[in-house]
Write a structure and sequence with these properties.
The chain is mainly α and 204 residues long. The protein has eleven helices and no strands. The chain starts with a helix and ends in a 5-residue tail after the last helix. The model has no long low-confidence stretch (mean pLDDT 89). This is TetR/AcrR family transcriptional regulator.
Amino acid sequence: MPKQTFYHLPKEKKDTLILSAKEEFSRVPLHEASIANIIKSAGIPRGSFYQYFDDKEDLYFYLLDEFTQNTNRRVMTILRRKQGNLTETFIDLFQHIVHNQHNQDNRAFFKNVFLNMNFKIENTLARSMYEENQKSHYQSLLKLVKTDHLNIKSEQELNDMIEIMISVTIHNLVRVFVLNLSEDEALTKYINQIELLKKGFQKE
């Protein structure tokens, strides 16, 4: 995560550095990205960069964490609008993310994220709501979920259900870029899988 000196930067300088980083991570995957290109675009000395971040990985995962935090806030908003319906919330969220990824300003960045998915990246995209400083947020989310129509017996089973749906969501986001799916194709496939989860795989 960023060092305190980054948070003390004026907003304009902070935004310039983030934009420069996003442009570089859109151009190439993380392992090919160059700090030299980022600082040249941002107009800062190399020494200044290391006052803000430990390395390019630190900056990259900061961008992903920001995306995750924004996603978590959106989940809360959608869940309220959907009156606690968890599956409808995930479908709405997936549609929103896919739509944003097809936006030209975001597509290259997310394409590199999802086509170079590994455990650390997946964990970053899914983890924030489970971390210590997010527990109160997560508990608030759980209280919004309407559970009377769900086949669960405990909060732990609800947690497991959410983890499964997050995994299915991330898998389908990867497919968007691997198979170059349109928004309609991606949403149709995703909804089919969510419907299967709702029905369950085994007859009584």
